[in-house]
């Protein structure tokens, strides 16, 4: 498993940013089944997360 997971940081008003997995759920599940202790991941900053969000 070499493709990194993609994790963004969502932040509610007045709260600390919280991680949210946005790509790689299947890879995470497979790793869990195979007892893989670590996976590569790319953590988006809060600013990068805002750039990719779609307005509601």
Span from first to last CA? 34 Å
How many runs of DSSP E, i.e. beta strands? 3
Output the structural class.
alpha+beta
Q: How many strands, which pairing sense, and closed or not: the largest β-sheet?
A: 3 strands, mixed
The rough form would be described as elongated
Number of helices: 2
Largest sheet, order of strands side by side?
2-1-3
Compact summary:
With 56 residues, the protein is an alpha+beta fold. The chain has one domain.
Describe, in plain words, how this protein is organized in 3D.
With 56 residues, the protein is an alpha+beta fold. The chain has one domain (5-52). It is 29% helix and 27% strand. The chain contains two helices and three strands, in the order E-E-H-E-H. The chain has helices spanning 25-33, 46-52, and strands spanning 5-10, 18-23, 41-43. Strands 2-1-3 form a three-stranded mixed β-sheet. The longest helix has 9 residues, at 25-33. The chain is elongated and about 40 Å long. The mean pLDDT is 90.
């Amino acid at each position: 498993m070499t493709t990194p997971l993609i994790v963004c940081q969502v932040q509610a008003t007045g709260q600390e940013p919280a991680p949210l997995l946005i790509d790689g759920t299947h890879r995470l599940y497979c790793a869990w089944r195979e007892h893989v202790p670590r996976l590569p991941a790319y953590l988006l900053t809060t600013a990068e997360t805002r750039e990719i969000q779609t307005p509601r």
